[in-house]
């Protein structure tokens, strides 16, 4: 089968059961708030029965995407990144806001991924901002990239302002509304990923 241009048609990945949701944190600062927000969202996904995994770019060796001819020369973390996202049914992306957009680290990681990892997947978006303004520009740019990768992006998205003051020492958000929005985003991604891929709820771990 070919596409309208005569090229071999891509086959969207169809990961096997059980339901898996992976989160990708695009912040490089130690003890960053992006990771903490994604951890909350993953708790929501787990409550829907999903196996979860968090990929923290601050703890991975991810070089610039340089279109090298021999991709086997990329560090093992690149293959780990690609494999984990490809094996997931749902994806959570998180980024701090930098100049109205996503972090360079997250954009570079997305450049190393492609249709094989994203096409047909359910994606939820989280952005954190250091100031009082919401990170809507970051969310919009993340959504655009996901659309180009033929992913299904959840209408619900979460922006957290003044991120430095948003979390308590216990890892929970001080504002229960923000906490619930993150939990609901994780539940939504897991729920609709399950429906999209036709997975039975009892196929997920208890």
Q: TL;DR?
A:
The protein is an alpha/beta fold and 206 residues long. It has one domain: Rossmann fold, CATH 3.40.50.360. 35% of the residues lie in helices and 17% in strands.
Spatial strand sequence of the major β-sheet: 2-1-3-4-5
Main β-sheet description: 5 strands, parallel
- Average pLDDT, to the nearest integer? 89
| Full CATH superfamily name | Flavodoxin domain
In total, how many beta strands?
Answer: 5
Number of alpha- plus pi-helical segments? 6
Range of helix content? 25-40%
Describe the structure.
The protein is of the alpha/beta class. It has one domain: Rossmann fold (3-Layer(aba) Sandwich), CATH 3.40.50. It is 35% helix and 17% strand. The chain contains six helices and five strands; from the N terminus they run E-H-E-H-E-H-H-E-H-E-H. A five-stranded parallel beta sheet has the order 2-1-3-4-5, sandwiched between helices. The longest helix is centred in the C-terminal third of the chain and has 22 residues, at 176-197. The termini are far apart.
């Amino acid at each position: 089968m070919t596409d309208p241009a005569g090229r071999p048609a891509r086959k969207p990945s169809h990961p096997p059961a059980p339901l898996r949701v992976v989160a990708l944190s695009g912040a490089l600062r130690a003890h960053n708030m992006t990771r903490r927000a994604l951890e909350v969202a993953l708790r929501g996904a787990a409550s829907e029965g999903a196996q979860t995994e968090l990929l923290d770019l601050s703890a991975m060796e991810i070089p610039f995407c340089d279109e090298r001819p021999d991709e086997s020369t990329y560090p093992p973390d690149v293959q780990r990144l690609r494999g984990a996202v490809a094996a997931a049914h749902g994806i959570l992306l998180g980024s701090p806001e930098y100049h109205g957009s996503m972090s360079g680290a997250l954009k570079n990681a997305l450049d190393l991924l492609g249709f094989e990892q994203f096409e047909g997947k359910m994606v939820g978006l989280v952005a954190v901002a250091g100031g009082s303004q919401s990170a809507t520009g970051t969310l919009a740019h993340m959504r655009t990239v996901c659309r180009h990768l033929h992913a299904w992006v959840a209408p619900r998205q979460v922006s957290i302002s003044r991120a430095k003051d948003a979390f308590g020492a216990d890892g929970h958000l001080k504002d229960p509304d923000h906490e619930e929005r993150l939990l609901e985003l994780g539940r939504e991604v897991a729920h609709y990923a399950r429906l999209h891929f036709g997975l039975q709820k009892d196929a997920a771990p208890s």
